[in-house]
Design goal:
8-stranded mixed β-sheet; about 30% helix; 4-stranded antiparallel β-sheet; disordered C terminus; alpha+beta; about 25% strand
Length: about 500
């Protein structure tokens, strides 16, 4: 084999997946047909769950250097409400140019061992019992055990695989760009207020120095990159003035197509990111959804390559992530309706805005956007199992600091448990100093009850119990019994090594 995994597409999802695989020593090749990363300086928002993921891998500080923090509120259908209190140490949005995200993730992937080749176009592939042969334009062939398509909405991998892309085709178009505005700021604000009463898909948001992000309804679907003259025409049609726009930084047109891949896996070929799902960019969920696909898939695919993955572990990727994407598509459908200027849609919008004055409603809708509401079905009755684990404090620092290697973690507060023969893929963080609720002071008050981290089983008088956290940061088990723990270790991490072979690796670790 030339490589263990070939990833097609070096956008945020592809680069993140390559890094996740590299952490596990997987030989991964990333190819992208573009010679250079996209030059469009589109500012995107990294949401709370994506920031938690970056913190788990130790790369959040790199991103923070290039981003701008904003309150995590007002996302749902652009209904202006205060940011709710969220149960996270990273309860904000990070505005950051997408090319910067791609560059930093690509650099990190290379640091951990991935190979990235740009200007390389995949034109086909063939699968057999032993692996996948990837065909590259110009006649080159690359052999790998698995192939992952992270190559966007027009994915060559998905099309060649014959996987249906189901949903609704684009019905409307929106123009978006960054440009300088010649009109006085007061005039712009007044126009936005007046037009915004009936057209919620129109906005001019100032970035400073006379530069604005301009969003205006488009006239044609799928007509390619718009021109500045088209922006001026549409602005005059919608607002009565073109605001003297000039000197564009970038211009784009997007539709409201809402499509979901029928399957995420066919044999040795998988899909992630926009290759698996697309939707209108309402709430800025797309990039975040793809990055989180990659983190869910990475450790499972690495387990297959390294030979320890239990049977059907790789199938849980589709079982877990496809419903999450379906939910995102549904919430963008709902938001799109709420942005309509039709009287009925506006009546529903006013009613929802009134309901969002209730903190629980506002928080629940924002948790959907920022992916804090996800709960995978692990067949366990506990409220926390299947949910993401917050970055709780431990004796050695913060839990996420101990997850930088992309491995599972057993947070043990009993002082009696160990990971035994799974120590090559699960780290032990021992912390018996206090119970979780006493050390969780950094978490915000007012968070919803299911996300609170009370590690004590019902009826137990123990100071605390243990939490088994998967490499993607989701809780796999809570308890205080070694035999029960080993059942769940085997479920997620396969057969164990002999204790003698892993004795040195099983010692408690301090966060990196």
């Amino acid at each position: 084999m030339d490589f263990d995994v070939v990833v097609v597409g070096c956008g945020p999802a592809g680069a993140m997946l390559a890094a996740e695989l590299g952490l596990h020593g997987v030989r991964v090749l990333v190819v992208d047909k573009e010679v250079e990363p996209a030059s469009i300086v589109r500012v995107v928002g990294l949401h709370v769950r994506s920031l938690e993921v970056m913190a788990m891998r130790g790369v959040l500080d790199r991103l923070l250097e290039h981003g701008r923090k904003r309150p995590a509120g007002g996302f749902f259908a652009a209904i202006d409400k205060p940011a709710p209190v969220l149960d996270s140490a990273y309860g904000y949005l990070l505005g950051i140019p997408q090319p910067v995200v791609v560059r930093l993730l690509e650099e990190w992937a290379v640091e951990v061992g991935a190979t990235v080749r740009r200007g390389v176009e995949v034109v086909g592939f063939g699968e057999d019992d032993g692996g996948v042969t990837v065909e590259i334009a110009g006649g080159e062939r690359v052999r790998a055990r698995y192939l992952v398509g992270c190559d966007g909405a027009r994915s060559v991998v998905r099309k060649r695989l014959g996987v249906a892309f189901e949903g609704e085709a684009a019905r409307t178009a929106t123009l978006m760009g960054e440009m300088e505005v010649g009109a006085p700021a007061e005039e712009v604000s007044q126009a936005v207020r007046e037009v915004g009463r009936t057209d919620k898909s129109f906005s001019l948001r100032p970035f400073g120095g006379g530069v604005y992000q301009v969003v205006v309804p488009g006239a044609e679907v799928g007509a390619g990159v718009p021109t500045l003259d088209e922006f001026k025409l549409r602005l005059r049609d919608v607002a009565g003035t073109d605001f003297g726009v000039h000197s564009p930084r970038w211009l784009s047109r997007f539709g409201d197509a809402t499509l979901l891949a029928e399957r995420y896996r066919v044999g040795r070929v998988l899909l992630a990111g926009d290759a698996a799902h697309i939707h209108p960019p309402i709430g800025g969920q797309g990039l975040n959804l793809g990055v989180q696909d990659a983190v869910n898939l990475g450790w499972k695919l690495a387990g297959e390559v390294r030979g320890w993955a239990p049977e059907s572990l790789l199938d849980t990727y589709e079982a877990e992530r496809r419903p999450v994407a379906a939910d995102v598509l549904d919430n963008t459908r709902a938001q799109r309706e709420l942005l309509s200027s039709e009287p009925g849609a506006q009546a529903v919008r006013r009613l929802l805005a009134e309901l969002m004055d209730i903190d629980e409603v506002n928080r629940r809708l924002i948790e959907k956007i920022v992916a804090l509401d996800i709960r995978y079905d692990f067949g366990d009755g506990s409220e926390l199992v299947g949910r993401r684990m917050p970055d709780v404090e431990v004796a050695q620092g913060n839990l996420y600091d101990g997850m930088r290697r992309g491995r599972g973690v057993l947070l043990d507060r009993t002082g009696r448990l160990d990971v035994g023969g799974w120590a090559d893929r699960v780290d032990l963080v021992a912390d018996t100093t206090t119970s979780a609720p006493e050390r969780a002071g950094h978490r915000s008050a007012g968070a919803s009850a299911p996300d609170r981290v009370d590690l004590r089983p019902a009826g137990s008088s123990a100071a605390g119990s243990a939490v088994l956290v998967r490499p993607d940061g989701y809780v796999a088990w809570i308890g205080d019994d070694q035999k029960e723990l080993e059942v769940h270790l085997a479920r997620w991490f396969g057969d164990y090594l002999s204790r003698s072979a892993s004795a040195r690796a099983s010692a408690p670790v301090s966060p990196a």
